[in-house]
């Protein structure tokens, strides 16, 4: 069993759900739902693969198009508790974030990228799809929400992967543990409204 | 005569017109008009080529820069019926959409992409430039307009190309017929306000 | 001493400052400041490298990540004259613009791109990062500001580099002179509010 692929498909599905839910919330049609879900689910990985210099996996192996297709169908048939959509999007998005920061860093390391590049490519894989989703939907990027800590868990997850890889401790177990830790960190940060300091030190305070 | 190239230049020109018209409508200067036209006309194809893994055609053969240049000049000298701009943009945009969904899919098939990838790359070529135009101009993406059916004709055109290709029926005639059919479908959908179902099944209705 | 690299790091730093300052102005946190600075400083060059078809320099040589890191730290500790931020962003941005239009064109020429492609890749390197900064931060793109002349200096700089390259006059001195000329042109255009004609010839005026 290829755990990397399984996790990748799972992350794609959850990110695609968040894209299709946003499409539903905004009243887009099913074709737009499929496109926005695909962009959210596959966009970060495509950018990662273009930077690594390999054919984007999503286009190389058609199996990667199945999760966005499923996500658009699932969202279409969900009962209409539209008012609870945003919280749901955030939770699904968190799973995608946790999965992609780790598998993105692993992919970069497998292609012999240096540690700094692997760290940033893990973060890019994790936040790229969601950023594209928000940008093309004219939604304020969750990534930059000052009342939310979004990229920090991705940096943590990608950083831990780079660390265990170079220590020789990388395997299915350490991958799963780190992914779960990032997910828990992200969900706790949502629940308790954790924040990191602002971009600017405000001495007047 | 290379019909693919001829259609590609035509599609680039019409998409570039839509970009330069949007620049005119927003009061941008001629340099921004040229850039927005180029992005609209060439952006989808560049993304397609990056994903396929070949040098982007637009940068490989300078002839592709001529349509955006012509488009910026044409828009500059058009008489100023600004209030009719939006309808004109939509019509020009429809030609670009029809041309690029078919030639984009053909290009992907020529580079031995699988059918699913060729379908999505045809759609990407068709909607990518217009999406970038709307995103960078802070315009609500036409692609996601729930009262408009925009990506469906592109899916249809790219799908038919993949079909005739695998049936061995691909030639200049089938290419032209499919392109014309997509254009007619798109223009009729604009005229009669055809829609596809929403991203979400609203049971309350 | 590799003048190209030195200028590139300088341009990255100044663009990254403009990205991190925008993050500070919008109240983003330090992680978002680092990401927005990195995108602004490295984004244009990454797009250029993807189009050229070489591994993006920023990910190949980790030294390129240092300027955005420094920029985020510098912005964090700057005293809080937030009201003067916009003017400062414009000045720092001008340095990045001047540096990247020339080094971007040089890189394209070194990789044997044709003159038209080298011109447009120089402009892409120069305006790409700032455009991405504005697009992802939901800020009106400076690139399209009709009361400002932004891309014209980049076209001038990239055009002059292509010219001296083909005349055989390219060296560290001509590179520095052209870069300085673009910077002066950009700063004067800001000071005296120079403009280029609109996208559309308004005969009614």
Overview of this protein structure:
The structure is a homotrimer of 205-residue chains. Chain A contains eight helices and no strands. The longest helix of chain A has 26 residues, at 85-110. With 205 residues, the first copy, chain A, is mainly alpha-helical. The model of chain A has no long low-confidence stretch (mean pLDDT 89). Chain A has helices spanning 3-25, 30-52, 57-60, 66-77, 85-110, 115-136, 151-167, 172-191. Chain A has one domain (3-191). The interface between A and C is medium-sized, with 35 and 34 residues.
Q: What do the pLDDT scores of chain A average to?
A: 89
Q: Biggest sheet of chain A, open or closed, and with what strands and sense?
A: none
Give me the count of strands of chain A: 0
- Strand content bin of chain A: under 5%
- General shape of chain A: globular
Quaternary form: homotrimer
Gyration radius over CA of chain A: 17 Å
What sequence of helices (H) and strands (E) makes up the elements of chain A?
Answer: HHHHHHHH
Q: Biggest interface, and residues per chain? A: A-B, 34 and 35 residues
